[in-house]
């Protein structure tokens, strides 16, 4: 079950995550630009107005967003079960070489940190190798803004167009978009549009960013 506020929150967060305003997202999906305006969310008499299933389908299609990810942006638990506990590792820890898929070290300062519920709720759609991180600086702009929370699946195949986070033994922590999958690595477009090839041999770990929200 979900509420009127949760659905509109999901639309707003999806728009922000993809770099649009609510009206910009509507326009991109071929809808009336005013479809998601705040004035359209409540009738003059105060009755809640809901977005149509057609409009939601269109914005999910144009943003390539999975239904489960969309629901989690609104804090909606799609499975009806409690969200799994997902480790929250800070960027400094990851940049220091920590393998997020390895056994958690006893005494590690991140051991008791867990991801926010809106992020953890999506982990059920992927697998046990998921972890989260919080972007606390501007190093990955404009791809991800300061303040974003990321959910990363570290156990999946990468394909062209995937947003990824990885640790290279040569270059450290790297974030980018997969341009081409090579036999022994990946060609990436980095946040500043720099093109970089990362080899599998130099990669300690790599994960696909399956959800980003603020």
In short:
With 214 residues, this protein is α+β, with helices and mostly antiparallel strands. Helices cover 24% and strands 22% of the residues.
Give an account of the 3D structure.
It comes from Micavibrio aeruginosavorus (strain ARL-13). Pfam families: HTH_26. Residues 31-51 are annotated as: Disordered. This is Peptidase S24. InterPro entries: Cro/C1-type_HTH. The protein has 6 helices and 7 strands. Helix 1 packs across helix 4 and helix 4 (67-73) packs antiparallel against helix 6 (117-123). 30% of the residues are buried. A 7-stranded antiparallel β-sheet has the order 1-2-7-3-4-5-6. It has 2 domains: 4-73, 434 Repressor (Amino-terminal Domain) (Orthogonal Bundle); 91-213, Ribbon (Umud Fragment, subunit A). Strand 3 and strand 4 (172-182) form a beta hairpin. By secondary structure, the protein is of the alpha+beta class. Helix content is 24%, strand content 22%. Residues 103-112 have low confidence and may be disordered.
Topology:
Layout: H1 4-17, H2 22-28, H3 53-63, H4 67-73, H5 91-95, H6 117-123, E1 130-134, E2 149-153, E3 163-168, E4 172-182, E5 185-189, E6 195-199, E7 203-213
Antiparallel strand pairs: 1-2, 2-7, 3-4, 3-7, 4-5, 5-6
Helix pairs in contact: 1-4, 4-6
Protein name: Peptidase S24
Pfam families: HTH_26 (PF13443)
Region (Disordered): 31-51
């Amino acid at each position: 079950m979900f509420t009127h506020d949760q659905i509109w929150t999901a639309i707003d967060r999806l728009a922000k995550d993809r770099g649009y305003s609510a009206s910009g997202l509507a326009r991109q999906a071929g809808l009336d630009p005013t479809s998601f305006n705040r004035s359209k969310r409540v009738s003059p008499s105060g009755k809640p107005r809901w977005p149509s299933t057609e409009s939601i389908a269109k914005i999910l299609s144009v943003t390539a967003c999975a239904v489960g990810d969309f629901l989690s942006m609104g804090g909606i638990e799609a499975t009806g079960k409690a969200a799994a506990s997902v480790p929250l590792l800070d960027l400094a820890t990851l940049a220091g070489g920590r393998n997020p898929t390895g056994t958690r070290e006893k005494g590690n300062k991140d051991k008791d940190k867990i991801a926010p519920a809106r992020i953890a709720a999506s982990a059920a759609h992927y697998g046990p190798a998921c972890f989260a991180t919080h972007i606390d600086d501007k190093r990955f702009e404009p791809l991800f803004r300061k303040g974003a929370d990321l959910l990363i699946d570290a156990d999946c195949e990468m394909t062209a167009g995937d947003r990824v986070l990885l640790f290279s033994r040569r270059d450290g922590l790297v974030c980018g978009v997969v341009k081409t999958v090579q036999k022994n690595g990946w060609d990436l477009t980095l946040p500043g549009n720099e093109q970089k090839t990362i080899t599998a041999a130099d990669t300690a770990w790599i994960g696909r960013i399956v959800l980003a929200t603020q």
